[in-house]
């Protein structure tokens, strides 16, 4: 089985690649486990290949037709389409967001359609497709009402993926991710970057800025669980999904104050004191438009599970990233 | 004031043009009535110009950038974007539907953005953006769940129009139209074509085929009221609309049996006998996925009104089209 990961140099892409290589196999559409013979990692910068002979790294612009033709052939069984321009950047650079989040996603689906063998496409969407006056718990049939260009582009790609699936061009699965926390690495241009930064930086002995008030509620999923859900999502039985290919992944609803209390519990007051409060209305507006909780019954029915407590999420981050708390 | 109508040779486009010319003026964004000095009608075939010196007809492919640049300049105050590939045709020819219903709509918004003067864009959407398990009365915040490529393309264009409006590139208004009935002219490739055909053809002494069962419920708006709503929609106060630019226009919910009973009431049994029942599962599937009624409170609050009875709709059709019932 040949597998493609777009955004393969990114944090989720690299972690997914390692998980797929360790697993060595994926269930195919007929439910049988097939060995992964080739794992193609595509990104704008060269992804790590882990010295594994099954990995083929490709550098290219995903909005270019020729690049997609090079990485998707009629042996490609499963595609994890993670490449994206994050929320803050898509708001700052409208054209770039449209080009990568919309045009490239459509071109990927078109390339699959032209190949004609109906590969599975796992697409990651976001809390940002929701907005406006939301119920306390967002339901699977709550209307999409994005309040950012990023959310708009993700919502459009969801609609395309559903229609390309309905028409039999691809076998689509849209997984709406909660905000991922705790991400390792550096802050990025996502409006939600702080949701990792306020935990990660203090644990690593650095100052962090919190741009929202402590009562702001977030809907979070750990990287560990996100990777498990991506793989399980790819293996989901098409019949169980039916024509509606969007699944809201399970999250935990926590306020920023509760996140910080969990950090205090794990690492102590000295670490928490490295957080500086500095409200940024731009971030508050975008993040405040997202749902703080959604109904997870469909995901659970399909066998997809999330985290239990944010304290455990912090502990997993420390373990997974070999953090030495200072 | 300069006004553009795309799909200007179509049935709604021509009727809208006549209504605008008769009115002679439109309210501008500041609420003041401004005379219409130029009315540009664009279509793939030459629209009628009614011998009116204010009308400029343009023939061209709306998915071509150069065509849009020719018809939208920085004097264009209001655009009625009616050009579309209808539901049945968009399902039969996927690429054509994507090109006209999605790409051309986006190109139109991009052309406005590049001009930079934030023209008003009135976009017509459809019942076809809804689908799946629907409540008896669809609400403004019922999730979009299109079951056809046409509905998908309309839903995507709605999302784009909302975001282009939020960013200040255009002043968008999306009017979701019920199925229009009774349309004059010939049957077309819309899945809902029969909703006019079963009234129009019998009144004109011709046989008509009804492809759905009598209990099928439709959500209908007459051409007369549709034109009134398009003009009123353009003139709506931006502040009253806020960031959510989609308005579900009022309709009447009638079953096919009730439509035929109204026809019998107006024209007699002899006319009704010209309808032949011939179920077409393809049409039943598409039409059956559409809502039979939606909440109209927002439209009414904004001052947009629909029809009262389907009997009146038939009488208006006979009057407007000078039909001599045979």
From TrEMBL, chains A, B:
Organism whose genome encodes this protein: Paraburkholderia franconis
Name of the protein in its database record: NAD-dependent epimerase/dehydratase family protein
CDD domains linked: Gne_like_SDR_e
Record's keyword terms, sorted: Carbohydrate metabolism, NADP
Source taxon at top rank: Bacteria
Residue span(s) of domain NAD-dependent epimerase/dehydratase: 3-208
Presence of the UniProt keyword Amino-acid biosynthesis in the record: no
InterPro entries in UniProt: DenD (IPR050005), Epimerase_deHydtase (IPR001509), NAD(P)-bd_dom_sf (IPR036291)
Highest classification ranks of the organism: Bacteria, Pseudomonadati, Pseudomonadota, Betaproteobacteria, Burkholderiales
NCBIfam families, per the entry: ErythonDh
Keyword Cytoplasm: no
Gene3D superfamilies: NAD(P)-binding Rossmann-like Domain (3.40.50.720), UDP-galactose 4-epimerase, domain 1 (3.90.25.10)
Coiled-coil intervals: none
Membrane-spanning parts: none
Molecular function in Gene Ontology: oxidoreductase activity
């Amino acid at each position: 089985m040949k597998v493609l990961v777009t955004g393969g140099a990114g944090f989720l892409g690299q972690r997914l690649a390692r998980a797929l290589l360790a697993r060595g196999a994926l269930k195919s559409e007929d439910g049988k486990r097939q060995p992964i013979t080739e794992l193609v990692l595509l990104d704008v910068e060269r992804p790590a290949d882990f010295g594994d002979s099954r990995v083929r790294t490709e550098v290219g612009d995903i909005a270019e037709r020729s690049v997609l033709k090079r990485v998707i052939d009629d042996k490609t069984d499963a595609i994890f389409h993670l490449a994206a321009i994050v929320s803050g950047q898509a708001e700052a650079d409208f054209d770039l967001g449209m080009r990568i989040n919309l045009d490239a996603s459509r071109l990927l689906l078109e390339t699959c359609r032209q190949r004609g063998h109906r590969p599975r496409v796992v697409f990651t969407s976001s809390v940002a497709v929701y907005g406006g006056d939301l119920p306390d718990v967002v339901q699977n049939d709550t209307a999409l009402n994005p309040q950012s260009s990023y959310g708009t582009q993700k919502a459009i790609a969801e609609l395309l993926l559903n229609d390309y699936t309905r028409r039999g061009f691809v076998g689509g699965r849209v997984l709406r991710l909660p905000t991922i926390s705790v991400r390792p690495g550096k802050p990025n241009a996502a409006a939600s970057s702080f949701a990792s930064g306020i935990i990660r930086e203090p644990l690593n002995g650095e100052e962090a800025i919190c741009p929202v008030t402590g009562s702001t509620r977030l809907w979070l999923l750990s990287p560990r669980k996100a990777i498990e859900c991506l793989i399980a999502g790819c293996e989901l039985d098409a019949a169980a999904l039916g024509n509606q290919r969007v699944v809201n992944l399970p999250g935990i609803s926590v306020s920023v104050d509760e996140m910080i209390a969990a950090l205090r519990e794990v690492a102590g007051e000295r670490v928490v004191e490295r957080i500086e409060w500095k409200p940024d209305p731009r971030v508050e507006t975008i993040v405040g438009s997202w749902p703080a909780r959604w109904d997870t019954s469909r995901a659970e029915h399909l066998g997809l599970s999330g985290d239990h407590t944010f304290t455990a999420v912090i502990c997993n981050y420390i373990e997974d990233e070999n953090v030495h708390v200072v």
